[in-house]
């Protein structure tokens, strides 16, 4: 089930999966709507029978802002997307995983939760900190049922995220200067980690967040 507010992205992803012999269903979903998320999970179960893995990657800083300029609208929208969106997705799928006594949930966090986002994104860092904490809590609460829950805290990755957040060229260069590998991560590198987390290769791994940052992202 490929779900996003980006119709073209979900369709292209589903076509790639189908083109390689898999099965996929694209669906336009706004994760800030509990009703839409619940419907997504129902459709996934009805279509595929069982859901073994859930990857919650919807998130954004929305826009950069100094701390004293963060208003209610920016704060609420940031938490609605990053925190409530993750909450809704996990709450929708966990009863199904409980019934099966199996499942892996991977949530997208950020290095921002470790450095706090001073000067540009404290609202985003705080939201991702909440995602890390929820991941820990869910992992420990449901571990005895064979359910694992993990998060990924990447440094800068080459996606439309920075443009969407109106990141200035100067700030973007600062991010790059802080990475010892002198490059940004690629989406495929995050994808490979998600596959590993969902595999039996790390069956004893849960509750953790994994940092993928090229050695940087701490400033």
Report what the structure shows:
- The protein is of the alpha/beta class.
- Helix content is 49%, strand content 13%.
- It has helices at residues 7-19, 34-48, 72-100, 112-115, 122-142, 161-164, 169-177, 187-198; strands spanning 2-4, 26-28, 53-56, 103-108, 147-154, 209-212.
- The strands form two sheets. Strands 3-4-5-6 form a four-stranded parallel beta sheet, sandwiched between helices. Strands 1-2 form a two-stranded parallel ribbon.
- α2 packs parallel to α3 (72-100) and α3 (72-100) runs parallel beside α5.
- The model has no long low-confidence stretch (mean pLDDT 95).
Pick out its properties.
4-stranded parallel beta sheet; two-stranded parallel sheet; alpha/beta; 219 residues; 49% helix
Mean pLDDT, to the nearest integer, reads: 95
Spatial arrangement of strands, main beta sheet: 3-4-5-6
Cα end-to-end separation: 36 Å
The helix tally amounts to: 8
Query: Could you say which structural class the secondary elements and strand pairing correspond to?
Result: alpha/beta
Can you give the helix content as a percent range? 40-55%
Largest sheet: 4 strands, parallel
What pattern of helices and strands is seen along the backbone? EHEHEHEHHEHHHE
As residue ranges, the low-confidence spans are: none
Shape: globular
The fraction of residues assigned to DSSP E strands is: 5-15%
Find the count of extended strands (DSSP E, 2+ residues).
6
